[in-house]
Write a structure and sequence with these properties.
Keywords: Methyltransferase, S-adenosyl-L-methionine, Transferase. It comes from Candidatus Abzuiibacterium crystallinum. It holds the Pfam family Methyltransf_11. One of its GO terms (molecular function) is S-adenosylmethionine-dependent methyltransferase activity. The chain has about 250 residues and is α/β, with parallel strands linked by helices. The protein has nine helices and seven strands; from the N terminus they run ααβαβαββαβααβααβ. It has helices at about 5-10, 15-30, 50-60, 75-80, 115-125, 145-150, 160-170, 185-195, 215-230, and strands at about 40-45, 60-65, 85, 100-105, 125-135, 170-180, 240-245. The protein has a seven-stranded mixed beta sheet with strand order 3-2-1-4-5-7-6, with helices on both faces. Strand 4, helix 5 and strand 5 (about 125-135) form a beta-alpha-beta unit. The radius of gyration is 17 Å and the shape is globular. The two termini are about 30 Å apart.
Length: about 250
């Protein structure tokens, strides 16, 4: 991910609708699968560390974070997170069976991540009967020349591709759902429109994560929070993001 995008994440992760919806979805999964008593948890590809903080809220035990980029480290210090390391999903620096729960939120699509090796490593460090929660961008046709370049993403997944990648690592997929179905038409329209000229490949790419008018962000946040509640009963058939819950 481009270095300046970490500051964007840090500035917007508390209020921006996408992050609010993702945290709500994770809370619902923890509730549905009774993961609140997990003793050791890992966020593999933690960025600024916001989801490590969430893991600490969801479970009273010990949460760890890992990210490859040196640009993430200053934000861990600002958040006073001290169980953090730099490392790659391709070779996780943890003992086999070290964690009850491993999450990896929109990381598996990154340049440099070998999907098969990364899932094998995630499975290795998960305890028997432990849980893995992974999200990834959906639909190859939603690839954005600017956003995906800015966040260093090179892959998007279909349901079958994500399911098979998880299963090849020896994990059992408990559920697979899309996220953000209500806003999917707007997201798709914006992505398709971004392909129209002009395009300036020599300029620094900027992600789609930008401040919105307060009223619009509030409306979007209300929608995605309601969708997260719906995960208690529903798997969504469409949406811009895929979420998989798997068990070792």
């Amino acid at each position: 991910m481009e270095p300046y995008e970490y500051q964007t994440l840090f500035d917007l992760e508390e209020s921006y609708w996408w992050f609010c919806g993702m945290r709500a979805a994770l809370r619902q999964v923890f509730q549905d699968y009774h993961l609140g008593h997990a003793e050791r948890l890992l966020d593999a590809g933690c960025g600024t560390g916001r989801h490590v903080e969430l893991l600490q809220e969801l479970s009273p035990q010990i949460a760890f974070g890992l990210d490859y980029s040196e640009h993430a480290v200053p934000f861990w210090k600002r958040k006073q997170l001290n169980r953090m390391v730099r490392g790659s999903l391709n070779t996780l620096p943890y003992q086999t069976g070290a964690f009850d729960v491993v999450i990896s939120i929109d990381v598996i699509e990154s340049n440099g991540i070998m999907v098969e090796e990364a899932f094998a490593e995630i499975a290795r460090v998960t305890k028997p009967n432990g849980f893995v929660i992974v999200t990834a961008p959906a639909y190859r046709w939603l690839y954005s020349r600017e956003h995906d370049r800015a966040v260093d993403a090179s892959k998007r997944f279909s349901e079958n591709e994500l399911r098979q990648a998880i299963q090849r690592a020896g994990l059992r997929v408990r559920r697979l759902t899309h996220l953000f179905p209500s806003l999917f038409p707007l997201i798709a329209l914006a992505r398709l429109a971004s392909r129209l000229p002009p395009h300036h490949p020599d300029l620094q790419p900027v992600s789609d994560i930008k401040p919105l008018p307060r009223w619009l962000n509030a409306c979007f946040t209300w929608l995605v929070l309601k969708e997260a509640q719906g995960l208690k009963w529903l798997d969504y058939a469409w949406g811009s993001t895929l979420m998989a819950v798997a068990q070792k």
